[in-house]
Amino acid sequence: MRLPAPVRINPGQMNNGANSAKVPRMTTFAVRACSVALLLLAGLVATPAPASAKDELVIGMTQYPATLHPNIESMLAKTIVISATRRPFTAYDPSWQLGCMLCTTLPTIENGLAKIEDLPDGKKGIAVTYTIQPGATWGDGTPVTTRDVNFTWEVGRHPQSGVAAAEFYRRAYKLDVKDAKTFTLHFDKVTFEYAAINDFQVLPAHIEAAHFAEPKEYRNRTRFDADPTNAGLYFGPYRIVEAKPGSHIALEVNPSWYGEKPRFKRVVFRTVENTAALEANLLSGAIDYIAGELGLTLDQGLAFEKRHGDKYQVIFKPGLIYEHIDLNLENPVLREPKLRRALLMALDRQALNDKLFGGKQPVAVTSVSPLDWVFAQDLAPVPYDPKAAAQILEEAGWKAGPGGIRQNAQGEKLSFELMTTAGNRSRETVQQVLQAQWKQVGVDIKIRNEPARVFFGETVTKRKYGGMAMFAWVSSPENVPRSTLHSQEIPTAANNYAGQNYTGYASKKMDDLVEKIEIELNRETRKALWRQQQELYLEDLPVLPLYFRADVFVMPKWLKGVTPTGHQNVSTLWIEHWRAE
Question: Are 320 and 474 in contact (CB under 8 A)?
Answer without folding.
Answer: yes
